[in-house]
From TrEMBL:
Record-given protein name: Rhodanese-like domain-containing protein
InterPro entries per the UniProt record, alphabetical: Rhodanese-like_dom, Rhodanese-like_dom_sf
Pfam families: Rhodanese
Residue stretches making up the Rhodanese domain: 139-191
Classification lineage: Bacteria, Pseudomonadati, Nitrospirota, Thermodesulfovibrionia, Thermodesulfovibrionales
């Protein structure tokens, strides 16, 4: 009986130590802090106290924002939270907009010190295909059309005949590209972000 009790005590003690170790790692160590699309080579690197991903929801009344990094995070904000690259109320941000949140942790909750909204990308006008030109390309089937959005977005709607190669996994799908390096490709996404 004494050995069973000692074994039970040892098991409970080990479980307690494991839970204490997990708790000591803090909230930010339990889920991803950067979305896959944000962590591509040459892109961003999240540091402790940062979240990089896509906006899910904002509640001005509750002063909370949710960001998807591959896991859903809820972060509080207030009048002291700085907002970069956005001059409207936060609840006017479009869902899925790319954002980075710098935060501090207090009493097990996250508080935003900075919400950085990804500004629109400047695209060289010579590389932009106008609607009339795209219609001609589509009608003539004279180029491979690639939708680089995540599969979920592609499945919601896409240009008929296009193929889906999410930009974050582009290197895994090189075999889908034309062998002829001079063959035209139209590469599109959800718009300048």
């Amino acid at each position: 009986m004494g050995k069973k009790r000692n074994g039970l005590f040892l098991g409970v003690f080990i479980l307690f130590l494991a839970l204490a170790l997990v708790a000591s790692q803090g909230i930010s160590q339990q889920k991803p802090i950067i979305a896959k699309g944000c962590s591509l080579p040459g892109c961003h690197t999240a540091k402790a106290g940062e979240l990089w991903g896509n906006l899910k929801t904002v509640s001005g009344k509750a002063e909370m924002i949710q960001i998807d990094t591959g896991a859903l995070w809820t972060v509080k904000f207030d009048e002291n939270t700085k907002v970069k690259n956005w001059n409207q109320p936060l609840n006017k941000l479009p869902k899925e907009k790319e954002i980075a949140i710098t935060y501090v942790e207090k009493n097990g909750e996250l508080y935003a010190t900075l919400i950085n909204v990804k500004p629109p990308v400047a695209v060289d006008p010579s590389k932009v295909v106008k609607v009339a030109e795209m219609k001609r390309i589509y009608d003539e089937k004279s180029a491979l059309i690639i939708d680089c959005r995540p599969a979920g977005r592609y499945n919601e709607g896409h240009i008929p005949g296009s193929i889906n190669i999410w930009f974050a996994e582009f290197d895994k799908h090189i075999d889908k590209l034309p062998k002829d390096k001079n063959a035209p490709i139209v590469y599109y996404c959800q718009g300048p972000t």
